[in-house]
Amino acid sequence: MTDMPHTAPAVKPANPNFSSGPCSKRPGWTVEALEHALVGRSHRSKPGKARIQRAIELTRALLEVPDDYVIGIVPASDTGAVEMALWSMLGERGVDMLAWESFGAGWVTDVVKQLKARRRADHQGSIWRIA
Q1: What is the model's pLDDT at position 64?
Q2: How far apart are CA 109 and CA 91, in angstroms?
Q3: Which of 7-16, 36-45, 105-114, 118-127 comes out lowest in average pLDDT?
Q4: Residue 60: other Cβ atoms inside 10 A
Q5: Cα 62 from Cα 49, distance rounded (Å)
Q6: Which of 4, 29, 36, 86 is the most buried (most CB within 10 A)?
Q7: pLDDT-based confidence at 85, cuts 50/70/90?
Q8: What tens digit of pLDDT does each residue of 8-26 get?
Q9: Can you give the pTM of this predicted structure?
Q10: At how many degrees (to 10) do helices 102-109 and 78-89 cross?
Q11: Residues 122 and 108 sit within 8 Å (Cβ to Cβ)
């Protein structure tokens, strides 16, 4: 693979705004769309909490979630997804924890100190030492 020539693509996208960088707006978007946006406001502010509560209410109605179920809103990230999985799936059985970088080590800490899950073992260190 190191012998491959480094050439620019022959065809480039018509609109290069994609990925996590600058993103394209929907057709017809104007700055007026931000009129009621809580830009620069904390989710802990009174309007922020009200907006989150409204989102939870709409989610419950749309998905017909029973009243005795809790709806949680978390960051849309891998970290948020892993945290939700940890909090909802770990329980009765012991668990082996593997960590070889900072995120994994943080999840081991969550399992040990916050969830207080019973552990069979935790293996922390360099990925090269684990392998």
Answers
A1: 97
A2: 16
A3: 118-127
A4: 14
A5: 20
A6: 86
A7: confident
A8: 888 877 776 666 666 777 7
A9: 0.50
A10: 30
A11: yes
Distances from the Cα of 78 to the Cα of 48, 71, 81, 107, 112, angstroms: 23, 19, 5, 12, 20
pLDDT digits (tens, 9 = 90+) for 58-81: 999 999 999 999 988 876 666 777
Q: Which pLDDT does position 65 carry in this prediction?
A: 96
Please report which helix (H) or strand (E) contains residue 107, including its range: helix 102-109
Number of separate helices (H) and strands (E) present in the chain: 4, 2
The residue to which tokens 């994994």 are assigned: 104
96 neighbors 122 (Cβ within 8 angstroms): yes
- Site of tokens 């770990």: 90
Alpha-carbon distance of 12 to 117, in angstroms, equals 50
Tokens (6 digits) for 75: 């960051």
Q: Taking CA 56 as the corner, what is the angle to CA 39 and CA 22, rounded to the nearest 5 degrees?
A: 35
For residue 128, is pLDDT > 90? no
